[in-house]
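Weekly structure sync, notes
Attendees: PL (lead), two postdocs, one rotation student
Agenda item 3: pending single-chain targets
PL asked that the sequence for the first pending target be pasted directly into the notes so everyone works from the same version. It is reproduced below exactly as submitted, 389 residues in total.
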Amino acid sequence: MRFRHPDGSTVHLAYCTNVHPAETLDGVLAQLRDHCEPVRRRLGRDRLGIGLWLARDAAHALVTDRSALRGLRTELEQRGLEVVTLNGFPYEGFGAEEVKYRVYQPDWADSERLAHTTDLARVLAQLLPDDVAEGSISTLPLAWRTAYDQERATAAHTALTTLAERLDALHELTGRSLRIGLEPEPGCTVETTRDALAPLTAVGHDRIGICVDTCHLATSFEDPHTALDALAQARVPIVKSQLSAALHAEHPHLPEVRAALAAFDEPRFLHQTRTLTAAGLRGTDDLGEALAGDALPDASPWRAHFHVPLHAAPAAPLTSTLPVLRAALTRLVGGPHPLTHHLEVETYTWQALPPELRPRARAQLTDGIAAELTLARDLLTDLGLKELP
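Predicted structure, written out during the meeting:
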């Protein structure tokens, strides 16, 4: 979906396909047929933006077989789909029964991460629509915080510098300008936007910036305006923003709140949980740890890294951080000029919701994704953007 900003530029809105498990190119093609095109039809649009997640094997197949890449582009065009952004955070296995810490491997100190992201850039340069010259890729925020010493930090910095050089060369070769955004996430070396300032300033290249995920922003209790102003002051480019909402518990000391939170403690994904105390941010790596005993202070609200559907807040006594998303979006695209032109709805946890909230059929998932995109569209038009055909 495309929108015209009052300044005349185009803002792209997509939904991320990491909600649909697929490790191979055949799986990606099935996603387009079974999910993406039905969402477009449900919205009544001639064109729908999708943020493709390409696992390692799918990406490798595309860069080693030019006919396969042409075939994917043709498939996208025939189904009324367009790609201007990729989700390069998960490397593989994102649809596994247990993902947890595995999603952070390989990290930016490992050569596989650079090779995979280079593959993604080469693919995206060929998938961009003819009238779009800029693409974006979100990626792991360097590494999970443990076992990340100075030696690995140096290796990660070198890898990002190499990537920037490769993106420059790709621009010269194809005329397509691609940028990579580190995506701050709780528990990682780069947990907050503030944490991103030093490494991104050190790399010092405008092709390497940040991806602002509004669920992660909220989970770490960052104020959107303060965070985004600091990025602007440091001249760190906001490559893209993922529109998502975290789980919020206002009174975590109450037994009924604990019981409601426990329903979201599931085995597939890591749900880092945070609270803001007088002494600063406190947290656990997973929701179950927070619920066990006194691992986390409960005098102040808790937020958990659980991407809840944007249009459907959890039932009381829980809620979502949709107000944080609204505030961030206002700052991102509500001003005289957009701070980013790429927006992506990223709710990948539909099948990790409590059983009674999960879609029971493919059509229900289609309806849910379409409802999220409708909400995002309404937020954008309320800010003065005009939806384009």
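Discussion points:
- The chain has one domain: 2-246+320-388.
- The longest strand covers residues 10-16.
Action: rotation student to compare against the earlier draft before next sync.
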